[in-house]
Write a structure and sequence with these properties.
globular, 606 residues, 19% helix, six-stranded antiparallel sheet, binds (2S,3S,4S,5R)-3,4,5-trihydroxy-6-oxo-oxane-2-carboxylic acid
C-alpha cells in the first residue's frame, strides 16, 4: 500500500505547491559519518549545487565525479502562516538511488529507488511563518537487490566504486524537482480512469480515493472549456457524448476536475488533462481505439550535458521537436520511469510510451551487451538475494503504475530489460511481476519486457508472459558486424523464422537495434563506427523487419548518444544515437526521417 499520494503537485482553488529548486548545500560523506556527527542538523562544510541535477558532471576532479557512497543536501525555506491547519508535504520527484529525509532535525521519511516520487509529511513539525531546515542523506550504491542492479568494489585506498550491471552512467542526486505542498485535511489521494468506446460516445469508469466521507463530484471540460460531462460519487461511470478521442500524434485532452464537496463548499480540488483512448492487442496488432498502429521511435535516456540525468526542461522540448521532425510516434522510457513532465508532454503531443520500471542489470555482467551472445548462463533469479530483489521490484511496479496509470500516452508497461531468462527460476520470478502488474493496472494495459540477445526462441523461458514481444537485437553490430553483415542478416532471419512459429497472436516490436557511430567519422566504403555503417546496419535490420508481418514496431537504440561508465567498449559514452548528445542529427537521422515519413502509422495493416 502506498504511503503517500502520487498525484503530481498543483495549485488549485484549494491546493498550494511551491518548487524548492535552486542552489542547495551539498557535501560528500565518504566515511559515512554524517549521521553520527549530527549533519542532520546542518552540513559542516558544504558546497553549493543546483537542484534538480545529477552531481557528477559539475566537478573537475575525478574522485567527486565517480563518488560512490553517502552524500548530503540541505536547504532552508519559509512555510507561510496561512498554511496552518493544512497538511504540509515535501515531495521529491526522485532521489537516486535512496534517501533519508530530515526536517527540522527529525527523520521524516526514507525511500528506496531512484526514479519515482515520494513525500514526507511535515505538518506537525513545520515552523509556520518562520524558517525550516530540510536535510537529505542520499546514497548511490548498487547491489543485486536494488533496481537497477550492480555492485560496489572498494579500492586499496578505501574509496568505493560503483559497478553498474547496465550500460548507462550511474548518475545520482536530487535529479527531479522538490516541492513544498499544502493540501486540505480531507483530500483527494488518488484516482483512476478506464476508457471504453460506445459508438460515438466514451464511457469512462472512474474511481477516486479520498481520506474522508464527503461527497465527490467530477466535471469534464473539453479543450474549449465547455463542460461536457458531470458525475457524482467516489466511483462510477461518466459518459462523454460525441467524444473526441486521443489519437497517436493527434492528441485531444479533456480536463477532469475532481472535487470533494460538502454542500456548496469545495473541500479539495484536483484537475488533470486526460486523453480518452483504448488499448488492445489482437491478431498480431497493437490497437489504439481499435485502430492498428506501427511503432516508430526510440529507446531513450534522460541524459544531457552537465546536468546528467537531472530533469532538463530544454532537452525535453528539443527531444520532442526532433522526434516529430524524424517521424517518430513512440518511445520506451529505457531503463527507468522518466520525469513526470515528459509524460505530460507525450500526452499533449500524442506520443505512445512504453513505461519501463528500473529492472535493468538482472544479468550480472558489466558488459551485458558483449557477454549476451556468449551463451553465459547465470541463474540470476535463483540466489539467496532473489526474494529481496523481488520485493523491491514489486514495490517499484506499484509506484510506477500509481504515478503513471492515468496518462493516455502510456500504452504498455515494460517490466524488465534484458534479464536472464534461461534458467527455470526466471519464470517463477517473472510470473510474480507480470501478475502484480495486471492486478494493479486499472486499464489492464499490455505487459512486455525486452529480450536479451541470448533469449532466443529455443532457450528463453519467459517470452510467453509478454502480451507483445520486445526484442533487443544487435545483428550487424555485436554479432557479425562490418564486412560480415550479410551473415548477420542470415542469422537474424533464422531467428525470426523460429519466432514466427511461436508468436501466435502476439505482435513483436524491436526495442533496440543499431550500432555505435562517431558523428564525426565519414568513410567510403563504410567501416564500423562510421556514419555510413550506421545507416547500413539500420537498413539491414529494416529489411528483416519488413519481411515479417507480425513485426509491428521499430525503436532504434538510441535516440541520442549518452554517457556510460568508461571502458574499452565505450568512447566517452554510448554512441548509438541517431542524434548526438547535443541533439544534432547524424547522417542516419536523415535516412530514418525518409523511411518513417513513408511508413504510415498503420503500416502493414493499411
Ligand atoms: C542493450 C541494453 C542497453 C545498452 C545497449 C548497447 O542491450 O539494453 O542498455 O546501452 O544494449 O548499446 O549495448
Amino acid at each position: 500500500m502506498l504511503q503517500s499520494s502520487m498525484l503530481y503537485p498543483q495549485d488549485s482553488a484549494i491546493r498550494r505547491s511551491v518548487r524548492l529548486d535552486g542552489m542547495w548545500k551539498f557535501q560528500l560523506d565518504p566515511q559515512a559519518c554524517g549521521t553520527k556527527e549530527g549533519w542532520i542538523d546542518g552540513l559542516p562544510s558544504p558546497d553549493l549545487i543546483p537542484v534538480p541535477a545529477s552531481f557528477a558532471d559539475f566537478y573537475t576532479d575525478k574522485e567527486t565525479r565517480e563518488f560512490c557512497g553517502d552524500f548530503w543536501y540541505e536547504t532552508e525555506f519559509y512555510i507561510p502562516d496561512e498554511w496552518k491547519g493544512k497538511e504540509v508535504d515535501i515531495r521529491f520527484g526522485s532521489v537516486t538511488h535512496r534517501a533519508n529525509v530530515y526536517f527540522n532535525g527529525i527523520e521524516v521519511t526514507s525511500h528506496e529507488g531512484g526514479f519515482l516520487p515520494f513525500c514526507a509529511r511535515v505538518t506537525e513539525i513545520a515552523r509556520y511563518g518562520s524558517l525550516n531546515k530540510l536535510v537529505v542523506l542520499a546514497n548511490n550504491e548498487l547491489s543485486e537487490t536494488t533496481l537497477p542492479c550492480g555492485s560496489v568494489t572498494t579500492l586499496p585506498s578505501g574509496r568505493k566504486v560503483a559497478k553498474p550491471y547496465f550500460d548507462f552512467y550511474n548518475y545520482a542526486g536530487i535529479q527531479r524537482s522538490v516541492w513544498l505542498t499544502a493540501t486540505p485535511k480531507e483530500s483527494i489521494f488518488d484516482f483512476s480512469v478506464v476508457h471504453a468506446i460506445d459508438g460515438t460516445d466514451a464511457l469512462v469508469t472512474y474511481d477516486v480515493v479520498t481520506n474522508g466521507e464527503n461527497q465527490v463530484a467530477i466535471e469534464v471540460k473539453d479543450e474549449a472549456g465547455n463542460i461536457v460531462a458531470e458525475a457524482e460519487g467516489k466511483n462510477g461511470e461518466i459518459c462523454i457524448p460525441n467524444v473526441r478521442l486521443w489519437k497517436v500524434l493527434d492528441a485531444y485532452l479533456y480536463k477532469f476536475t475532481i472535487r470533494i464537496v460538502d454542500g456548496d463548499a469545495v473541500i479539495d480540488e484536483y484537475a488533470q488533462d486526460i486523453g480518452v483512448r483504448t488499448v488492445a492487442i489482437r491478431n498480431n496488432q497493437i490497437l489504439i481505439n481499435d485502430e492498428p498502429v506501427y511503432l516508430k521511435g526510440f529507446g531513450k535516456h534522460e541524459d544531457s550535458d552537465i546536468v546528467g540525468r537531472g530533469f532538463n526542461i530544454g532537452a525535453m522540448k528539443r527531444d520532442f521537436e526532433l522526434m516529430k521532425w524524424v517521424g517518430a510516434n513512440s518511445f520506451r522510457t529505457s531503463h527507468y520511469p522518466y520525469s513526470e513532465e515528459i509524460y505530460q508532454m507525450a500526452d499533449r503531443e500524442g506520443f505512445l510510451i512504453t513505461d519501463e520500471v528500473p529492472a535493468v542489470g538482472m544479468f550480472p555482467s558489466l558488459m551485458n551487451f558483449a557477454e549476451a551472445s556468449t551463451g553465459k548462463q547465470t541463474a540470476f533469479f535463483a540466489q539467496d538475494t532473489t526474494p529481496e530483489l523481488l520485493k523491491n521490484h514489486l514495490i517499484q511496479v506499484e509506484e510506477m503504475i500509481a504515478r503513471d496509470k492515468n496518462h493516455a500516452c502510456v500504452f504498455a508497461w515494460s517490466l524488465l530489460n534484458e534479464p536472464d531468462t534461461l534458467d527455470e527460476s526466471s519464470t517463477v520470478y517473472f510470473e510474480k511481476v507480470f501478475d502484480r502488474c495486471r492486478e494493479l493496472d486499472p486499464q489492464k494495459r499490455p505487459r512486455t519486457f525486452s529480450l536479451l540477445m541470448n533469449s532466443t526462441p529455443d532457450k528463453c523461458k519467459c517470452w510467453q508472459l509478454s502480451d507483445f514481444l520486445s526484442l533487443n537485437r544487435y545483428f550487424g553490430w555485436y554479432v557479425m558486424g562490418g564486412a560480415d553483415i550479410e551473415s548477420a542478416e542470415m542469422m537474424f532471419r533464422k531467428e525470426m523464422d523460429a519466432w514466427a512459429e511461436l508468436v501466435g497472436e502476439r505482435p513483436m516490436i524491436f526495442t533496440e537495434y543499431g550500432g555505435d557511430t562517431n558523428g564525426g567519422i565519414d568513410k567510403l566504403p563504410s567501416v564500423m563506427w562510421s556514419q555510413e555503417y550506421q545507416i547500413e546496419c539500420l537498413e539491414m535490420c529494416h529489411r528483416v523487419f519488413d519481411s515479417y508481418p507480425f513485426v509491428k514496431g521499430e525503436q532504434i537504440w538510441n535516440f541520442a548518444d549518452f554517457q556510460t561508465t568508461e571502458g574499452i567498449m565505450r568512447m566517452d559514452g554510448n554512441k548509438k544515437g541517431i542524434f548526438t548528445r547535443q541533439r544534432q542529427p547524424k547522417r542516419a537521422a536523415y535516412y530514418i526521417k525518409q523511411r518513417w515519413e513513408n511508413l504510415s502509422d498503420d503500416y502493414k495493416t493499411e
